[in-house]
Amino acid sequence: MINTVDKTSFRRLFFALTLPDTLQQNMVQWRADNFPPQAGRPIAAANLHLTLAFLGEVSHAKAQVLQQQAGRISQPGFNVTLDDIGHWPGSGVVWLGCKNPPRGLLQLAQLLRSQAARSGCYQAPLPFHPHVTLFRGAIRPVAIPARTTNEIFPVNSFSLYESVFARGRTRYKIVQSWPLAAREEKEI
Description:
Layout: E1 10-18, H1 21-34, E2 41-42, E3 49-59, H2 60-71, E4 78-82, E5 84-88, E6 93-97, H3 103-118, E7 131-136, E8 151-155, E9 157-166, E10 169-179
Antiparallel strand pairs: 1-3, 1-9, 2-7, 4-8, 5-6, 6-7, 9-10
């Protein structure tokens, strides 16, 4: 059998939380209802996600190590509430985020970012700011709605994504996913 995987090739990878399809559609509708068309380049519904750790251009061997490390993570699932919104003019990003990120989200991102750094993947020195990018290229001032969607979604897994540019479009495809442990029940 011939191995078709080019072991010398590099792929653009990142760890992220996948948003439920209904949440993606709700966000797209909310965005259309609250922003003018010239606000920026809207992110396609299927590409909406919450990045945990950006890895950059990664070799096949390094990706395998990172996948093995990710598979060892054991922590309970959690809920994420998207109740904050903002605009970073420097990077041209309009985003939905968390005013008070759950501890589980912060711990998962820190684990993945630490593992990535130890494996040689550059990690920006900026603190982790959990968010979902709504628009790119928003370099002019953007009127930010007074209220967000206040969407809550359960997180029971995380994924390794590959960013693929083809036919003039960027698409994110899941390479592998890992479940989080069952949620701990609180005693009454």
